[in-house]
Amino acid sequence: MVAVTPETGTSSTADARSGDLADQLRASFDAAVAAEERVEPRDWMPDEYRASLVRQMAQHAHSEIIGMQPEANWITRAPSLRRKAILMAKVQDEAGHGLYLYSAAETLGTSRDELLDKLHAGKQKYSSIFNYPTLTWADVGAIGWLVDGAAITNQVPICRCSYGPYARAMVRICKEESFHQRQGYELLLALSRGTEAQHAMAQDAVDRWWWPSLMMFGPPDDESAHSAQSMAWRIKRHSNDELRQRFVDIAVPQAESLGLTLPDPDIKWNEERGHHDFGAIDWAEFWDVLKGNGPCNEQRINQRRTAHEEGAWVRDAAAAYAEKHTSTGREVQA
Ligand code: 3HC
């Protein structure tokens, strides 16, 4: 990013000088973003850019750690040791994603504690999708295929986000999400090709997760408060509806290969548009879930608060260890 060095002159008033400087900084920032340069933590950035990034990154980080809950629900009941090991690794990956994202948000001057306090107080959001229950083992597969699939579609473009630390965190996250998506697909394929009851379980899970997965992309473009500005700042590269359409186009042939149907009779290829048409999304349900009225909102946030309280001793121990380590300047033996 181009550094802006204000000219040290003798302008008539301090106000005029600071006004000029603000304009210069702003112009330099806009030019750098337009030239696809990365914004780094020490670069000047508009307050609104910083605030919007913190908002989005916090929501993203919170989604990763709350998203551990519906899947962890099935670790003890996984049908084989292989499936259990895979699911444990996946849930652990989500915790790691949260860590990368909270760390990236810290580079903007907001601490992880501050963001977690806001989540626990209901002042920041997490993805609507995690307010739905995992009722059967097949839901683990549907989450992998559809939820992680939707997440990848949304998140690969964030690897080119204008803010360096967020973009770099997303590269690794997307690689891991890709593995998650494949394990879900493979799990559903096994069920779909299994007994009649297993096939029915897979179909039921897809029926329940399809529409909430489409809602993950956010409200329609004409109701998206942040899209226009975020796209101008190159935080977002595509609109909510563009990414939703991309996801539908990817999912339709995958469902066919799985031998499962998507619960939308209106899905059909539109030759003229070169995309699949699909039915109307129930946006009233989406906004209701955001207001806290989804099937699991209360359960998720309560469990998160309890986990945070019960984990206090781990944070205290880690802080004491770090303190000892830095005060002696030597490695501490376990
Ligand atoms: N769930 C909850 N809130 C949502 C939402 C959703 N599915 N979609 C939008 N919203 C919220 C927005 O955060 C915003 O609220 P705010 O003003 O309080 O922040 C409001 O609805 C209006 O939406 P906008 O379209 O104006 O918001 P954005 O421009 O920020 O777009 C987004 C929403 C597409 C989700 C964007 O923030 C984004 O791409 N975020 C990064 C990715 C992310 O957070 N994904 C969450 C899922 S992560 C995950 O799934 C984990 C994986 O392991 C599966």
Topology, pairings included?
Elements (H helix, E strand, L loop, with lengths): L13 H21 L12 H20 L1 H5 L8 H26 L5 H9 L17 H18 L8 H29 L3 H20 L11 H6 L7 H19 L9 E3 L4 E3 L5 H11 L3 H14 L1 H17 L6
Antiparallel strand pairs: 1-2
Helix pairs in contact: 2-4, 4-7, 6-7, 6-8, 6-10
The structure holds 3-hydroxybutanoyl-coenzyme A.
GO molecular function, one term: phenylacetyl-CoA 1,2-epoxidase activity
EC number: 1.14.13.149
Protein name: 1,2-phenylacetyl-CoA epoxidase, subunit A
Relative helix content: 55-70%
* CATH topology term: Ferritin
- The domain count comes to 1
Supply the helix-strand structural class.
Answer: mainly alpha
The largest sheet, given as strand count, sense and whether it forms a barrel, is:
2 strands, antiparallel
How large is the count of helical segments? Answer: 13
Distance between the termini: 43 Å
CATH class assignment: Mainly Alpha
Query: Oligomeric form of this entry?
Result: single chain
List the main descriptive attributes of the protein structure presented here:
Ferritin; mainly alpha; two-stranded antiparallel sheet; 2 strands; binds 3-hydroxybutanoyl-coenzyme A; 13 helices; 334 residues
Could you give a quick summary of the protein structure above?
This protein has 334 residues and is an all-alpha fold.
Your description of this structure?
The protein is built from 13 helices and two strands; from the N terminus they run H-H-H-H-H-H-H-H-H-H-E-E-H-H-H. The protein is mostly helical and 334 residues long. It has a two-stranded antiparallel ribbon with strand order 1-2. The chain has one domain: Ferritin. The longest helix has 29 residues. A hairpin with a 4-residue loop joins strand 1 and strand 2. The site of 3-hydroxybutanoyl-coenzyme A has 29 residues, from helix 2, helix 6 and helix 9.
